[in-house]
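debug: dumping io for the single-chain case to check the tokenizer round-trip. Nothing else runs in this session.
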Amino acid sequence: MPQPSIVANYVVDGLPVDLVISPDESTALLRTASRDGSVGRTYMLDLSVPGTPPLTLLHSHPTNIFQVADFVDALDSSAIATSWGASTPPPGSMPIPSQLAIFDLLLASVLNTSAVFDSATDIAVGHAPVSMLPLAAVIHDSQPVSFWDLSTGLPWGVLSSLPFPSICPPSNGSTQGMADSIAMTASRVIALRNAGYPQGPPGAPASERGFIGIAQLSVPSPGWPKSHGFTACPPQPMPAIPYELVHDLAVTSDGLKTVVSGTRVIAVVENRSGTLLDVRQGSTLPTPAFHVYPTSWITADSVEVTNTRAVVIGNATAHSGVAPINVPPPANDPETFRVAVVDIQKPTGPYSTAVISATGMVPPVAAPARASDLAISPDGTKAIVSTRAGALVLDLTVAVTQTPLSPAPQWFPGAPDPLSYTPTSFYPILISDSAACSDSAAIVIGRSRASTSSGQIWVLDWSTAGPPTATTIDLGAAFLPTDVALTPDRKRAVVRSIDLQGTRDGRITLVELPSGAVAYDATSSPVGPAELGRNLGRDHVECSAHFAISAGQDGAGTIPPIVGWVQIVRF
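debug: decoded output
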């Protein structure tokens, strides 16, 4: 096997905010943004070229700010990129349009650009029924979902009532601050919207309610699209457990069910009929914390599923109308985690649900224990949850019961803290995925508990009988990991780290799974600077079978113009 090596460092204009590799692994796309939101760019890396993949500027977008889940996505030989515009411009000023751009990746050309009616906040891609046209469904912050034919770049249609044309009048709702807010199956599109703005001031208005919409991709039948809200709109008062906002969704691999997480609410939807199979509500359930611009994800993915289980993570405190602008340092963070496991294998609910809380652990886990991220193994047998106090491993093959608690978690208190990061310049540090897993191992990244200025990688090996064994990889002073991705065969993990001081090169660490052996570690580049500093985007590293693509801004860049770097490691 060839020795891994850095084959290129490219300079790009702006802050890297999203990365994606096409399903056929022939192309990587990078989306950047300027500091002031005036321009964004989409770059393409041709991974099919022997030697060093060339970098091509595909398009410059008119505006781009960061309240977005996915900026760019790809399907077949096409791709789509979005931008965020001001949906409510200042008095006397012209509206700033949001823009969609659709690309032909084979020709490295723009098929179409279109100014759209509202900021685009998330993308899902899939194929139309029967015709199998490649489609993109785009959810906008307060307007209908739009559909685009990726083969031509032209509009495919608009679902004006998905999720709702007017949720709780006069509000059109908002998609801001969520993890994932839209998904597609072979015949359905599922979208989320909140009636209120989750990051509003404390004591947010009583219209804050979460909603689910589901529509057919074919010609709609009578009664479609479907919609579900957890509490009625005003003038009916909010219930005793307020702020039932939606945060994230996940679709089972068979495409039959969607599970939605929210603030002390979990919902299961049957996709074919659009019916709500079960709703869990109550003060014992998790509360995911919403993303707040311009800082980091507070809770990354808050729900993941198999065909028989759903895992939902969050915290113990009820949502109170505003998320913290910065995660408090350990000494001042009062938050503890909650994890709910739901057995969704029956055709209808109610479904058995077990809630694991920090205070209910034996012995109890004290704050800070804020939940960060979760992942489920491809075979559906294990789940890994990263928190500020340690990592939980859950066995998803056992019965789900509350008394006695099952699955009983395996607790690893020494795991690195995924959220103990303090910005050192104007630009905050965004931690994207802090946990990932294969069928045989899990990897957790964060800050070392022994040395608060040092990063650490943990690998939990569960490939043999008995409790998982932990391997620790110390990254040394001031190198902090911000994202992890697995190769398609899940035999390797690639960790992206930054220099906290902003004066040295970024770092790429290639780890073998399940052994935890370091196969490659680059703290400097043989082909030029690699000042991969602060991160504002959702994905900082992505992997194909042969490449790891990493991106970040110049560590020294604190004022415009911002310089971004793309680093390519060949396996």
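debug: round-trip ok. Confidence is low (pLDDT under 50) at residues 86-94, 526-530, 556-560.
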